[in-house]
């Protein structure tokens, strides 16, 4: 992670690079809102990074900037060494939102096939991939079901399978487990952890839960209240996680560290 | 149109689902039978009401405590139900070999074809307007008021204009026919609900769903076909129902006001002129028009079932 940029082979370009990024809503008009200010962050390939901060601090905005769903007011954003816009057009990332956002008229399998259809995959290949992804999120028996027949947690797993379906090198998630109950949530975290290990994806994960951020991440980025700035970056480094991790002293130590950083930021 | 219904895991554990157990013919069978029976009962009740009123009116000589009844009940104004039914089997006019049911059926078929042409044209125009209004905010602001305003112009005033425009028109070597004017007038009523309902439907997807398509770098056309149109279906179904009914009304009115021959609307006018000598005759044409309406409602009902299958039943 400390390699010199010049010495890095092309494939080792950072997954995400944010340089002096700022976002202001309604710039130059009444009700101007400074959402983000002076954001500098480099996310390496294969890293799992969480963004955490008080509500309204712009963490979702930051994710949307990386996804090129909105443009920065200032600064530079690179995704896989390209402009954010080019990365979006090349479909370099998969995205999951707080609400599963499945299309109710499509079956579970067809929902996962949606991004593949848009990329022009043929039918056989799409179906094979959808089947594979459903096994990955442990919903193999639900391919023919419709979203409304699934629980919230299951819908969210489908949404993650959809985001992963075309093997994006980067996974962007905006509080995907926010609407789930605590038990389902912990289960989903373990699943996501397993999936990211298996696929080796880079992930940027927005959350407002400290234990969630610590459990999932290699690094936790703590943002201040509006205008959002990076207060500190907590290196987690818990190694392989399982349910026991949640009760380990290191886990609690990191939680305390993040909490104190958050408290200092408010 | 995201599905957020937090269905319990327990509900999922049951091997239910559209694939496993289609809630189709088996479940709908007895209910459908009951509907048919209710419909027949309603018909019998209507006939009984007709005859009852007629009997009552004649018993009191058309006057109740000094007030005259709203409709005259003599056989010339209100023929017996059985006389009307018998009239269907008799020749259209003296010496004619054509029985009246055949004339009425042919007229209904003629009107139905024009209504269908109007429906098709209206739905096409309505959908096109909805797509343009969804795509361009300016178009919505500019067009929508006129779409609404269009429906305040009475059809009867419009009919001669359309016939006049069409009179000397040749499109692609195809000479304009009178029935085309009728179809155009029918479409004038039909396009409205499709344009308004379609616009609402195309605008129905949640911002997250649109962003999801953006995140896939989906083109406007892909977003339209894979997201907006499917999301619009629950809004389009009632709009199509309205459009179908309006196109029949439009075709009937247009036939009469343009003087087109061969349709059921024309028959109603012709037969009503003979009401004094042959009172049952006009009712045969009116019943024909009613049956036509029922047929169209039935066809659209099937369309509803097909388009809304495998959807959650949440839309009223």
Model description:
The complex is a heterodimer of chains A (266) and B (316). By secondary structure, chain A is of the alpha/beta class. Helix content of chain A is 35%, strand content 22%. Chain A is built from eight helices and ten strands. In chain A, the strands form two sheets. A six-stranded mixed sheet of chain A has the order 6-7-8-3-9-10, sandwiched between helices. Chain A is globular. The N terminus of chain A is likely disordered. Chain B is mostly helical and 316 residues long. Chain B is 71% helix and 3% strand. Chain B has eleven helices and four strands. In chain B, the strands form two sheets. Chain B has a two-stranded antiparallel sheet. In chain B, strands 3-4 form a two-stranded antiparallel ribbon. At the A-B interface, β6, α3 and α5 of A face α1, α8 and α9 of B.
Question: What is this entry, summarized?
Answer:
The complex is a heterodimer of chains A (266) and B (316). Chain A is built from eight helices and ten strands.
